[in-house]
Every structure is written in C-alpha cells, then in structure tokens.
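[Backbone geometry]
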Amino acid sequence: MKSLIYLKKFFSSIITIFIVSLIIFLLFESLPGDPVLIRLGIESDPILEARLREELGLNAPFYIRFFKWCFQLLKGDLGNSFSYSSYTVVELIKSRFLTTFIITISTLVIVLVTSIPLGTILAKNHKFKTFKFLKVFSQIGFSIPAFWTAIVLMYIFSLKLKLLPTLGSVNWNRYPITSLKSLILPILTLSISKVPLVSHYLCNSMIEESSKDYVRVAKSKGLNQNEIYKKHILRNSLISVITVIGMITIYLITGTIVIENVFALPGLGTLLMEGISRKDYPLVQGIVLYISFSVILINFIIDIMYSIIDPRIRKEGEKR
C-alpha cells in the first residue's frame, strides 16, 4: 500500500510537470519581442531573417513547436540557446549549476545544524525573561531583506576588513580557494535570515507540544526533561517544521537569483537574467523548467518525509 501511495504521488508530479511545461511555453510565446530581430537587428536583411527563423524553428505553428519541445524534454534535450549559439541549454545549465548548488546546499546545512539546537534551547528556556528578547531578535533577523544583508556584509567583510571578495570570481578548476571565498558572503547572507525563522518556528511548535497530555504522561513515568524533549517533543515538532524547511529550500533555489546578481556570481540566477535580457527563450524556458522541477521534487520528498516521521499520515493516505 505504501508503494502505491508513492506511485500516485509520482504520477501526479509528472502531470504537474507537463502542465508547468505548457504554461512556461505559453508564457514565453505571449511575451513581446522577436529573438530573430534581437540577434540580427531591426534593419536586417529579410532573407537572413527568414533563414534564421527557419534555423531556430520559429516558423512552425505553436502546437508543433510545443510537442517537439516536449519530445526533446523526454530525451533530456532542452534545445539550443539563441544567444550562446555554440552551446546547448543543458550545457549552459551544467556550467553554472555547481555554484548555485553549493550555495543552496551549504545554506540549508547551516540552517538545519544551527536552527534545530537553537530552537530547542529557546523552547526549554521560554519561561525566562531573556526568551522574549531573543524572540524579538529572531523576528528582526528574518524580516530583514536578503539584499540589504548582502550590502552590509560586503561593507564589513570586503570594504572594511578586506577579508572576502566583494564580487564573485568562480573557477573551480584553476582557483578553488578563491572560488570558495567568493561563496562565503552569499551563503552567510541567505543563512542569516533563515536561521532565526526556522528556530523561531521550531521553538513555538515545541512549546505547543510540551503542553500536551503525552508529555505529562512521560513526566509521570520518570523520564528526564532532556529525554522527553529529544524523543518526544522534538520528533513531533519536526513534522510541522518540515513544511518550513521545504519552503526555505524552495526559496533558496529561487532566492539565489537575487543573491547571485548582487555578488555577480556565475550561477543559474545570473544566467537566467542574461537569458531574459537577450530574449533567449530556450535558455529561460530551460532554467525555469529546472526550477519548477526542483520545487515539485522537493514537495514530493517532503510528502515522503511526513509519512516516515509520522506513521499516522501514511495510514490516512492508505485509507484514501
């Protein structure tokens, strides 16, 4: 039964990806601007325009181009870039993927490693006066915009202390240490706003769980406070926190677009902005589809994690 539930979720994810692909294709079809005229200029030769339009496949009807694009997707082919004519979209995404991946994963690890112990400590000491101060401080932390945090960190660590580079210079093959230094500030920028958010949410969830009947029963059995928090309260609180962590992961995938442009990092975010400015439809469609697929995959993983942590959720799914 459990495998059947996962199979249903898998097929629903496939249908969602198809719908998202159609929406993405329709969206870029409706955007103003002609990629042929952008490449050749407004006063270009009509013969060259027709030849390039045929070469790019833009002279075919919409539905033919869409189903051709879908067929290419099944083979893992996202087409050729309009602006980077010697590269395919997949090659361009691969060339920028590592930078975005390291920023996203590193930030997520820092958030999890820091916020779970911090949230637990806050929950244990929520009756003290310092708790109110820390709670207000955490609210200020996750309400500050990421781009403003980036500017402050650049001013402190780059301009004043001169410890880290202001702008990104990533070349993992030739300069791995310099490349790693270029990612420290972006990772810190994204982490600073997300650690208070997760710890604040976990703290509130644990405080709510600590007032429930099963905690009183555990205390009556003689279990110490640390054991109760670790084995019972934290485990049940993680169910609601998983949703927040999933939302943060989705934010990190999409939020790196802003941060990469602030720090001028050669990641998928800057590549997406380059594609938009050049009306490179295949490139932009490919990156947006990658982001959409990542969001769907994360939601699929979160559903599985729900059923693993709380068997009651799995049993409810089996009843359906």
